[in-house]
Description:
Elements: H1 3-12, H2 15-24, H3 27-61, H4 73-87, H5 91-102, H6 105-116, H7 134-144, E1 148-152, H8 158-172, E2 178-183, E3 200-204, H9 207-213, E4 218-223, H10 229-239, E5 243-251, H11 259-266, E6 269-275, E7 287-293
Parallel strand pairs: 1-2, 1-4, 2-3, 4-5
Antiparallel strand pairs: 5-7, 6-7
Amino acid sequence: MSGVVRNIVKAVVPKPIRDILRTLVPKPIRRQFHLTQSVRRLRKFYFGDQLRMIKPLVFHTRETHNFTYDLTETNLRYLEEVIAVVTGKTPDEIGGFIQEAINDRELRAYFDNKMALYDGQKTPSNVTSPFGRRLGWYAITRVTRPRLTVETGVERGHGALLLCAALLRNCEEGAPGRYLGTDIDPTAGYLLSGKYQAVGNILYGDSISSLKRIADPIDLFINDSDHSAEYEAEEYKAIACKLSANAVILGDNAHVTDKLARFSREANRAFLMFKEQPKDHWYPGAGIGISFPRRAGGH
């Protein structure tokens, strides 16, 4: 019973009657009633805003999976700090790369134009952000300058676009690299075209089969395909012997399973987890599991 209702009852119902009612209602039932009221208050306090946003956002964007959103300012700062630990750079350096992606007008215009023309089976609309946690992917690519980046699970190609944008920047600075995406859907990769396709292409078919055919060392690997724990673990097994000495692995499923953390421990690699906080969106956010080589004296 809320404080307001309790005060109204006290004002309207005389105390002798309240006492009689209290004796007639068993204590377990009264306790259950109070707990039910507490659940309602907690649901409203912690999830009220998110629940109210679901319907208008879904009808506005028509997105029912692979939701797009920006991150809160605080969450971006946390992302900078986590990647700084992983790469040995300063948070300000990481923040500079993140802002580089956010402020890339050509990238933004390309994304907006492509999404305006998108004609998928479940066509989204009013999708305004290709970024979210993938800003972390971009920053890591800019810092580590991978020669070969592999992403399993491409779908529309939000990750492929950000990764290839980072690779193009690296190439301009004298550090060329290429992107390979894998996806079982032959229509995946809509956003990977134009100049971004110059540094990337997609292997269609089962991801694990595609991974086994890769001969070159992998410097950056992103797991974002079949999100079952078993399949995720099999992907890590498939690339274990293909990783370069300084390779970084990003797990897009780390907020659901601990497979990347387990793989990291078994391979004597360091592991960190970043959890998203979407801005102005009902989705609670996914995360980035990061597996990276241990450095002398700690991570």
